[in-house]
Design a protein that fits this description.
The structure holds 2 protein chains of 2 kinds. Chain A is built from no helices and 11 strands. Chain A is mainly beta. In chain A, the strands form 2 sheets. In chain A, strands 2, 4, 5, 6, 9, 10 and 11 form a 7-stranded mixed beta sheet that branches. In chain A, strands 1-3-8-7 form a 4-stranded antiparallel beta sheet, with no helix packed on it. In chain A, strand 7 and strand 8 (77-82) form a beta hairpin. Helices cover 0% and strands 50% of the residues of chain B. Classes of the chains: A mainly beta, B mainly beta.
Chain lengths: 121, 106
Amino acid sequence: QVQLQESGPRLVKPSETLSLTCTVSDGSVSSYGWNWIRQPPGKGLEWIGYISTTGATNYNPSLKSRVTISAGTSKNQFSLKMTSVTAADTAVYYCAGGSEDPNYLYAMDVWGQGTTITVSS
Amino acid sequence: DIQMTQSPSSLSASVGDRVTITCRASQTIGGYLHWYQHKPGKAPKLLIYSASSLESGVPSRFSGSGSGTDFTLTISSLQPEDFATYYCQQSYSFYSFGQGTKLEIK
């Protein structure tokens, strides 16, 4: 069973860069496309972007200019960087795997527990 | 971008009720539609994938239907643990979520 864990600084200053890492354990990294999703306080889920098993990336157009998702230094990690953050980027950030099983049509069947990121000086 | 619109945004119901949540896509997405349950402090949980397939371990009172642009999630007999927020999500063109439906106890 694949397990995901987000990690990184929980407090980021305005205008600085948010950096998070997702560590994938106990499963096949190559069976998923890897995503970042966030939920601001009192709001719904927002897809941020993803990286495929081949390293191709796609981003939410509303965030594309500030976001980079990359494979981590370790084979079982991937990372999120978001530049020029503001208070509006305060949210719970999740990593999740979109299944590449053809029956699943890329549904996200594995999720990290989420990490709360606060943007404040 | 594909916009996903859920209705209603909130819903009050009682244990044992049958509940239906709808989701409409701004363009056709075939069967690339999934439903998630989200409880406070927890990760979202996949309930239904590919519009109508029940995820392993999910109770059979949950069902999904639809294709193209219009989809529904039905809970046949609400249980206390079902009170949560439900999201639809399309994966036809990248990803996008509906705004959520908060299911509350009446």
